[in-house]
Specification:
elongated, 23% strand, 4-stranded antiparallel sheet, alpha+beta, 2 domains
Length: 195
């Protein structure tokens, strides 16, 4: 490995001193400064770990050779990583990663099929609102109720909604076109004009 820069070595020494003192506030500051210096010199540690997450560090354990700590990947989730920074080499290494998916990936095909059939067939559906001019709007509140039946986190429902809208647009592509803005009040589909 390349020699450590003077700035990175100074940040590492501050981190080691903060670890000896056991002051969490100083540890977070020193860890953040070290990770920024590390990213500048070596590159990003991991796609799931970045310097700005240093404030989420917990369970600091220091010994004469290095510092070990955990980073919560997403606040409030059951996903974390355990990292070790070696005082000698300055290397940051991912030791362990664990986590639990909050919600299983929802199979959207049956929902897309049901909505597409209702739009094409002109039948009623609680998640659709028809206007006199032939347009059909997705009622976001009703769609979100369908997508959150297993009570996942808000971001999971947003991801599901985005995937559902994309798949629905693909399913209706031949006969219908989208005229609306995703994740706003509603998505509206209107019949394509035939030439």
């Amino acid at each position: 490995m390349n020699e450590m820069s003077v700035q990175r070595r100074a940040c590492l020494d501050r981190l080691r001193s903060a670890a000896v003192l056991g002051d969490k506030e100083k540890l977070w500051q020193a860890l953040g400064a070290y990770l920024v210096a590390y990213e500048r010199e070596v590159g990003e540690l991991d796609s799931k770990m970045a310097a700005y997450k240093s404030g989420r560090a917990v369970q600091f354990e220091a010994d004469e050779c290095g510092l070990t700590f955990c980073i919560e990947r997403h606040p409030g989730w059951n996903r974390a990583q355990r990292w070790r920074i070696d005082y000698g080499s300055g290397e940051a290494t991912l030791e362990h990663e664990w986590g639990v998916r909050r919600a299983e990936r929802l199979d959207l095909e049956p929902i897309v099929s049901e909505l597409a059939d209702a739009i094409r067939g002109g039948t009623g559906h609680k998640a659709l609102r028809r206007s006199p001019d032939g347009r059909v709007a997705l009622v976001v509140k009703e769609v979100n109720t369908i997508l959150s039946a297993d009570a996942p986190a808000r971001r999971t429902v947003e991801g599901r909604f985005s995937r559902l809208a994309t798949k629905l647009q693909e399913a209706l592509n031949e006969d219908w076109q989208l005229s609306g803005r995703p994740l706003r009040s509603k998505w509206t589909f209107e019949p394509r004009l035939r030439r």
